[in-house]
Amino acid sequence: MEKKTTKKAGKAGTRGNGPRADSAAAKRYDWQGGGWLRKTTRRRIYMRDDFCCIYCGASALDSAVSLTVDHVLPRELGGTNAHSNLVTCCKSCNSSKQDKPLARFLRKIELDKGIDGETVARRIRNTTRRQLPKLAQ
Ligand SMILES: [Zn+2]
Questions:
Q1: Which of 13, 52, 72, 135 is least crowded, fewest Cβ atoms below 10 Å from its Cβ?
Q2: Would you say the pTM of this structure is higher than 0.85?
Q3: How far is the CA of 95 from the centre of ligand 1 (A)?
Q4: How far is the CA of 68 from the centre of ligand 1 (A)?
Q5: DSSP output for 107-127
Q6: What is the CATH number of the domain that holds 45?
Q7: How far is the CA of 91 from the centre of ligand 1 (A)?
Q8: Residue 33: which pLDDT band, with cuts at 50, 70 and 90?
Q9: Which pLDDT does position 10 carry in this prediction?
């Protein structure tokens, strides 16, 4: 490998072993990747939902599906960041749901993918009632 001279000379003390668990930097780090949701909360939502998309059932455990967290009631329509309004959702479903009200999106996946909307609605009700699991630390 060739060495390049770089203008970005690292300031002393800014590089190293990553943020300590209790530092302000760690707290900032915890909020990265989406911005609006703590990484740890995101992980706990995935755990609660068994790493499966709540809508189509795609599982990140046995395929390369990318997971996101979705607001059941979109924020545009007054949905909050409460755990009971957040579900695991694959990128494909998330981009097709956008800010649609749930009922409209359920009709859409019923038509597009043959997924029974009533089953999904029941799954959402059962899932969002559950507590988020604690992370082992
Ligand atoms: Zn999906």
A1: 13
A2: no
A3: 10
A4: 10
A5: HHHHHHH---HHHHHHHHHHH
A6: 1.10.30
A7: 7
A8: low
A9: 42
